[in-house]
Specification:
The complex is a heterodimer of chains A (about 500) and B (about 500).
Chain A lengths: L4 H20 L5 H27 L4 E8 L2 E7 L1 H24 L6 H20 L3 H19 L5 H32 L12 H5 L1 H18 L8 H4 L5 H9 L2 H25 L2 H20 L4 H21 L4 H32 L10 H4 L1 H15 L5 H16 L2 H27 L19 H19 L7 H11 L3
Antiparallel strand pairs in A: 1-2
Helix pairs in contact in A: 1-2, 1-4, 2-3, 3-4, 3-10, 3-14, 3-19, 4-5, 5-6, 5-11, 6-8, 8-11, 10-14, 11-13, 12-13, 12-18, 13-14, 13-18, 14-16, 14-17, 14-19, 14-20, 16-18, 16-19, 17-18, 17-19
Chain B lengths: L11 H15 L4 H26 L2 E4 L10 E4 L1 H29 L5 H27 L3 H19 L5 H32 L4 H5 L5 H18 L8 H7 L2 H26 L6 H24 L3 H25 L4 H30 L15 H15 L5 H15 L3 H26 L19 H12 L5 H9 L15
Antiparallel strand pairs in B: 1-2
Helix pairs in contact in B: 1-2, 1-4, 2-3, 2-4, 3-4, 3-10, 3-13, 3-17, 3-18, 4-5, 4-10, 5-6, 5-10, 6-8, 6-9, 8-10, 9-10, 9-12, 10-12, 10-13, 11-12, 11-16, 12-13, 12-16, 13-14, 13-15, 13-17, 14-16, 14-17, 15-16
The chains are: A mainly alpha (about 500), B mainly alpha (about 500).
Chain lengths: ~500, ~500
């Protein structure tokens, strides 16, 4: 423990405390609530930037709380946690702005924003967790804090989606807990390290460690929506748009993907895993998920459902890259996609929310000619969609480029084939939307049009997707600039000696 | 002569509630003030005792300076001080809540006399029960424990019948019969022990070698205690008795009373008769515990009424305590630790749950789970308390329930009995089903929902439940302290290892 460790606690408190106060605020105090939210998220970004600079200059942030013998709660910031927490905090700020606009006149906002803040707190907690127990703590709390957001609308459909979400995540969480305890009895209280546990253990407990690895990956795979554990994700679409944005880009599926990264790199370690020879299974599971998600996305007419299946597919790129753990390029591609997918997907969900909120459009078949009515929104959407396909100069291209390089270097033709086919499928399900929106002619009146004065929609709804779209382009063109995600990922990779 | 120095603090937890109980009979007006004073005084004296205990280790006090075997000895070690502390904290919360509860009911214009009468009987009964519970935890010989068990049963049955509804009277009568049967069986066991060994003192008994008669005695005592602890399939009396009682009473019965007989049972098996305990015996209890976990949870899932759901959840949660038997037998490191966390967390969480259910019942006028949507809009604190207590029951981190679950699973793996760990996992998944069946209703406020006219209520009706639920939730973060207390207290029985071999 050191004095710097308290910075991590402050980072968590910067959204936890506003969240608690917001719960207690009466419904009408919109101004105060928004101020609290924004102050909290700006403060969080500032604190995380301070932490990032510290990490870059080699400072160690660590704070721990022993619970019972063998169980220690440990917060520890390494470059990888910096990557995830920066992503989460920046996107949280934008999503907060968006949510304030989106929920302007809906009921139960105190409740909503309270859980919203708690949700971000635990996501950052996942990023900063320094061992599996702490990770588990925040991972389970994430389920609890996202559940009220998913059922926020209170309809039967929402409740059903929420129920399925709980069934999937609790089963995954239970499996994960069992595996963590089991691992603990073998390795003792181990925190995340760049080398994983001692390879001596591998000699004596080979079968058990292999079983534990599969259980751990299945446990986090539920949230990362790896086929066949992805069933909850498309249903969770009933949640309000900012929640979907957060779920898909920052919180839930990302927590799962981040868990996979942690387990592979920091719990087992490159060395042990290449001796256990389990990663090809992860590789195949991820490849199936990438293709399956894309194929399912093709068949959806509901815009948000199509985006949801696209998430299923895109998040597994991260697992795909990580599974080729001895190929630096593949790992870079996987890690950097953690950030890139978040940026692109949140743009798409913001835009889908704008279409629904302004024109009542929920289906792709209703989108003909919509770009003429909402050009800025659709421009942002197009950038996000092109990024998903992997067209330069977007960030999507950078991810796929590195994944491809890694696949080539490993001679893993499966990965190359999956990349090619899925990019093709991405194009199949995104390009028709773009052509219809830009070049189609409107055939029917918009389902439910509302006017918001000067701009095509409310300003707080318009700005966030525009900002993220610009970031998608900027980070794609300046991928090698100082402090871009790619440079940071290279910095992370150096820590693992790859 | 009583001087309030040194070890004399040990008799305060007995005297204070007992005195308060006596005076409550005399004056209804001062009943709450007296009870609250007793509760606070009790907490204070246990704090002092805890402090002394941490300094010097286990304490023994001979009442009136008469030495054993003639006199009555009071004794404190790690497990017993934890139980006293649990009772003190939970009991204080329940006392405060009961005040808010009765005040709210008495304010209803109709049937005012009946509600006042209920309150008048509640306080003395509750205080007597509390004194007897403290007596059980302080007792040092198995006959005194029998006496305290009886003294617990009688006010407990009377409290269960207090609401006066026919359903609760039938349930209370059944509870009475079960309780008497259990006490008799236990008493018979005590007689066997006395006939065989000639001593009743726990520590003296723990030095004796097992014999056939000793085994028979242990069996008789265990059956009696199992009946009182409502281990599946002997749980049939519990759900109606707990669910039909008044809310503060349900909280008392579910969180404290069943723990009393369980404490004694665990003590007998692992501290006193450890040498007689064999593997098939613990496996039988473990299997029954597993049955309780699954059966209780499945029944809870099926219930349509909130209070019955919470009562069946108690049946299920008690099962975890018995899973600890086979694990404690083979994995010795933590036998009290696991049980202590389970008991502490469950006491706080379950009393919070019953209090919250009671508040919901008072405000909504019913406890039909399917019609609870919208409750959140007027009693948010209560709903929050229920949800947090639910986190405990499900055993999610960082609650005390999670720590207990962790210890159970890790010792099930350490002792290569992983199936118990799987039962624990299944139990908490089932628990999440019945918890979220209710909580998901809470989160919804139906469209066009109009907040009904609500009567004002004192904060005492809502906040004690929340505070207790939060204590249970944060128990996981302060886990080193209970463990430290337990470690200090091991010396009382340390001359015998749990398998009966001299160390």
């Amino acid at each position: 423990m050191n004095a710097h460790g308290w910075l991590l606690v402050c980072i968590l408190l910067s959204s936890f405390l506003p969240g608690i106060v917001i719960f207690a605020l009466p419904e009408e105090k919109t101004g105060l609530r928004t101020t609290l939210n924004l102050c909290g998220s700006v403060m969080k970004i500032v604190l995380i930037m301070v932490m990032n600079i510290g990490i870059f200059s080699g400072r160690i942030y660590e704070i721990s709380l022993p619970v019972i013998p063998g169980v220690v709660l440990l917060l520890n910031a390494d470059p990888l946690s910096a990557l995830f927490s920066t992503l989460s905090s920046v996107l949280w700020l934008l999503t907060t702005i968006y949510a304030v606009g989106y929920l302007e006149d809906s009921p139960n906002r105190s409740h909503f924003f309270g859980y919203f803040s708690l949700c971000v707190t635990v996501t950052i907690g996942i990023a900063l967790a320094g061992n599996l127990v702490t990770f588990l703590l925040f991972y389970e709390m994430l389920t609890l804090t996202t559940y009220p957001l998913i059922i926020h609308r209170g309809t039967e459909k929402a409740l059903r989606a929420g129920r399925n979400y709980l069934i999937y995540t609790f089963c995954g969480g239970g499996l994960f807990l069992f595996a963590v305890v089991w691992l603990q009895t073998i390795t003792g209280p181990a925190s995340f390290t760049t080398t994983g546990f001692s390879s001596v253990l591998l000699e004596s407990h080979r079968t058990q460690l292999a079983a534990i690895f599969l259980m751990l990956i299945a446990g986090v795979g539920v949230k990362a929506a790896i086929v066949p554990f992805h069933g909850w994700l498309p249903q969770a679409m009933v949640a309000p748009a900012p929640v979907s944005a957060l779920l898909h880009a920052v919180a839930v599926v990302k927590a799962g993907a981040f868990g996979i990264i942690r387990i592979v790199l920091d719990v087992y370690g490159v060395e042990n895993l290449s001796r256990l020879r389990l990663l090809p299974y992860l590789n195949i599971a991820a490849a199936i998920t990438v293709l399956w998600g894309s194929i399912m996305a093709l068949q959806q007419d509901d815009l948000k459902r199509r985006l949801a299946f696209s998430t299923v597919s895109q998040v597994s790129y991260i697992a795909l890259g990580i599974s080729l753990v001895d190929q630096p390029f593949a790992v870079i591609g996987g890690l950097v996609h953690l950030v890139h997918q978040g940026l692109m997907k949140i743009t798409l969900f913001f835009c889908a929310g704008n279409l629904a909120e302004t024109l009542g459009i929920h289906r792709i078949s209703e989108m003909k000619g919509v770009a003429r009515r909402m050009p800025l929104t659709m421009a942002a959407f197009s950038i996000g969609a092109l990024g998903m396909i992997g067209i330069p100069p977007t960030v999507g291209f950078v991810s796929k480029w590195y994944l491809g390089l890694g696949g080539l270097a490993a001679g893993n033709w499966l990965l190359i084939a999956v990349l090619a086919v899925s990019s093709l499928l991405n194009a199949f399900y995104f390009l028709p939307i773009l052509t219809q929106a830009w070049f189609g002619t409107q055939t029917a009146p918009w389902p439910e049009e509302r006017s918001f004065g000067r701009f095509e929609t409310r300003l707080s709804l318009l700005l966030p997707p525009l900002i993220t779209a610009v970031i998608v382009i900027v980070l794609g063109t300046l991928a090698n600039a100082q402090f871009s995600p790619l440079t940071w990922v290279n910095f992370i990779i150096r820590g693992y000696g790859l | 002569m009583i001087s309030f120095e040194g070890q004399s603090w040990i008799i305060l937890p007995l005297i204070l509630p007992l005195a308060a109980g006596l005076f409550c009979f005399l004056s209804r007006r001062w009943a709450f003030a007296l009870s609250l004073t007793a509760a606070l005084g009790n907490l204070l004296s246990i704090g002092v005792l805890l402090n002394q205990f941490l300094d010097t280790g286990p304490l023994t006090y001979n009442v009136g300076n008469w030495k054993t075997p003639l006199g009555i000895a009071l004794r404190i070690d790690g497990p017993s001080i934890l139980m006293l502390l649990m009772t003190a904290v939970t009991g204080l919360g329940i006392t405060l809540y009961a005040r808010g509860y009765f005040a709210f009911r008495i304010a209803v214009p109709k049937r005012i006399g009946r509600h006042e009468r209920q309150e008048r009987f509640f306080w003395p009964l509750w205080m007597t029960l509390w004194a007897s519970l403290n007596g059980l935890f302080l007792s040092a010989d198995i006959f005194n424990m029998y006496v305290t068990l009886e003294l617990i049963s009688i006010p407990a049955v009377a409290l269960a019948a207090l609401s006066g509804k026919p359903a609760s009277q039938i349930a209370a009568f059944r509870y009475l019969l079960v309780s008497l049967l259990g006490s008799l069986s236990y008493l018979l066991g005590v007689v066997f022990v006395y006939k065989t060994y000639g001593v009743l003192d726990l520590v003296l008994l723990s030095g004796k070698t097992a014999s056939g008669a000793g085994m028979a005695a242990l069996a008789l005592m265990s059956v009696g205690l199992l009946l009182k602890t409502a281990l599946f399939p002997m749980h049939f009396w519990l759900p109606p008795a707990h669910a039909n009682a008044l809310a503060p009473v349900s909280a008392i019965l579910s969180s404290l009373v069943v723990k009393g007989s369980f404490y004694l049972l665990f003590r007998l098996w692992f501290d006193v008769f450890a040498s007689a305990v064999t593997e098939p015996m613990v496996n039988i209890l473990g299997t029954l515990g597993a049955g309780a976990i699954v059966w209780g949870a499945l029944q809870a899932i099926r219930q349509k009424r909130l209070k019955l759901l919470v009562a069946y959840s108690t049946v299920s949660q008690l099962g975890y305590l018995f899973i600890a038997f086979p694990l404690a037998y083979l994995d010795m490191g933590t036998h009290w630790g696991t049980v202590a966390f389970m008991v502490l967390a469950h006491a706080c969480a379950k009393s919070a749950m019953f209090m919250a259910s009671g508040t919901i019942f008072l405000h909504a006028g019913h406890d039909r789970i399917n019609d609870l949507a919208g409750v959140r809009s007027y009693i948010p604190v209560t709903v929050f308390a229920y949800a947090i207590a639910g986190v405990n029951i499900m055993g999610l981190p960082p609650s005390g329930g999670f720590i207990a679950k962790w210890l159970l699973i890790s010792s099930s793996i350490n002792s290569s009995q992983w199936w118990w760990g799987i039962i624990v996992m299944i139990g908490s998944l089932l628990a999440s089903v019945y918890i979220f069946r209710v909580v998901s209703r809470f989160f919804v406020i139906p469209e066009g929902y109009k907040v009904p006219d609500r009567r004002p209520h004192s904060p005492l009706l809502e906040w004690p439940a929340l505070v207790l639920a939060l204590i249970a939730l944060l128990l996981g973060l302060i886990a080193p302290y209970p463990l430290h207390i337990l470690e200090t207290g091991n010396s009382l029985f340390s001359m015998v290892s749990p398998k009966g071999l001299p160390l």
